[in-house]
Structures are given as structure tokens and as C-alpha cells.
């Protein structure tokens, strides 16, 4: 695949996808592969939109492949929130009805 064909394809994708997806410039590596970065615009409540990486298209010997960018921070944060929720639920359950026996002394 020629570099000009790749640029034409990227321009076509840019036109179809609107402004929320950003395709980077094609980069040629020393082994003949072509790499194209893909990002999307993350719009915050205020301020300018920030580009967030989505993945990479790599073309090696005419075969394209897609490698997604994985956000490990988001996965770790989700695990921490689930652990925190489990700890809160367990604490509330123990405070409401403790698992140890009732050892109060009653006269009677």
C-alpha cells in the first residue's frame, strides 16, 4: 500500500467521522510498517476538549491491524471503588447485627 493511498484513506475517514475522532499522520518505520495513531476528543465540563488515545492502526506488508489503547488506570480505579463499596456494605452489616454472640447479663 502506497503512502499516498494511506493518506487518502485517512482523509476520507476524517471527513466521515466528524471532529470527535482524530487520525494522526502516517509514520513509516525502518522495517517498512506504517503506523497511524487514533484518538478521540474528550470534552470536559469546561475548557477545551482533550485528545484521548484510542489505539493504533499498523500496516505491515499490506496487512492492517488494530491495537487498542487500554487505560489501566480506569480499570484499577474501578477495582478500588468495588473494594470500597464491599467494605462499606460489610461494615454496615456488622454494625447493624454483629456476628459475635450477645453476652449481656439479664436479671430474671
From TrEMBL:
Name used for this protein in its record: Uncharacterized protein
Amino acid at each position: 500500500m502506497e503512502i499516498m493511498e494511506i493518506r487518502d484513506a485517512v482523509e476520507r475517514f476524517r471527513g466521515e467521522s466528524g471532529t470527535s475522532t482524530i487520525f494522526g499522520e502516517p509514520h513509516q518505520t525502518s522495517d517498512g510498517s506504517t503506523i497511524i495513531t487514533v484518538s478521540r476528543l474528550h470534552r470536559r465540563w469546561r475548557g477545551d476538549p482533550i485528545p484521548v488515545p484510542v489505539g493504533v492502526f499498523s500496516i505491515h506488508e499490506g496487512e492492517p491491524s488494530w491495537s487498542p489503547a487500554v487505560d489501566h488506570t480506569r480499570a484499577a480505579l474501578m477495582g478500588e471503588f468495588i473494594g470500597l463499596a464491599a467494605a462499606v456494605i460489610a461494615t454496615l452489616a456488622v454494625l447493624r447485627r454483629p456476628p459475635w454472640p450477645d453476652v449481656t447479663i439479664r436479671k430474671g
